[in-house]
Design goal:
Oligomer: single chain
Number of strands: 7
Structural class: mainly beta
CATH superfamily: Nucleic acid-binding proteins
Shape: globular
Strand content: 35-45%
CATH topology: OB fold (Dihydrolipoamide Acetyltransferase, E2P)
Distance between the termini: 25 Å
CATH class: Mainly Beta
Largest sheet: 5 strands, mixed, barrel
Number of helices: 1
Strand order of the largest sheet: 1-3-4-6-5
């Protein structure tokens, strides 16, 4: 049995770019940055960033291009794929990317961290606009519970 699965959470390094294939299928490409910290042999803390190329097809790509922006956080689930092509100068080029099966949108830059929105969600949109205004336009923000979440209560 074989497994090719990638799960990453990171911040977009650029706005998604939406293109159409000759078949008419839409494809969005964007990049996520992830970071990690480690200690070197001298005991000094080092931070390192990794950059991941992401592609999303069809409706998922359209949603990613519509809602994701540079700096926003996203969770991507998909498979690793390496493509190769011949460049104009005759050299062989390679690109490893994650082909997204699922994308969940996280917090946007400059906003409080809220519940992530899932791409392709079938649940109806709440009344009002994305800024949390209700139908009457009173500007009431979404109220989140103040109590702490116990990790033992999470079912997974």
């Amino acid at each position: 049995m074989y497994l090719n699965k990638a799960f990453i959470i990171g911040n977009l390094t650029r706005d998604p770019e939406l293109k159409a294939l000759p078949s008419g299928t839409k494809v969005a490409s964007f990049s996520l940055a992830t970071n990690r910290s480690y200690k070197d042999k001298d005991g000094n803390r080092k931070d390192m960033a990794d950059f991941h190329n992401i592609v999303a097809f069809a409706r998922l790509g359209e949603l990613a291009a519509q809602y994701l922006k540079k700096g926003s956080q996203a969770y991507v689930e998909g498979r690793m794929q390496t493509r190769s092509w011949e460049a104009q100068d005759g050299s062989k080029r390679y690109r490893t990317e994650i082909v997204a099966d699922n994308v969940q949108f996280g917090s946007r830059p400059g906003t409080a961290s809220g519940a992530p929105a899932k791409a392709g969600s079938d649940s109806p949109a709440p009344e009002g606009d994305a800024a949390g205004e209700d139908k009457a336009g009173e500007g009431a923000a979404i109220q989140y519970p103040q109590e702490e979440i116990n990790p033992d209560d999470i079912p997974f």
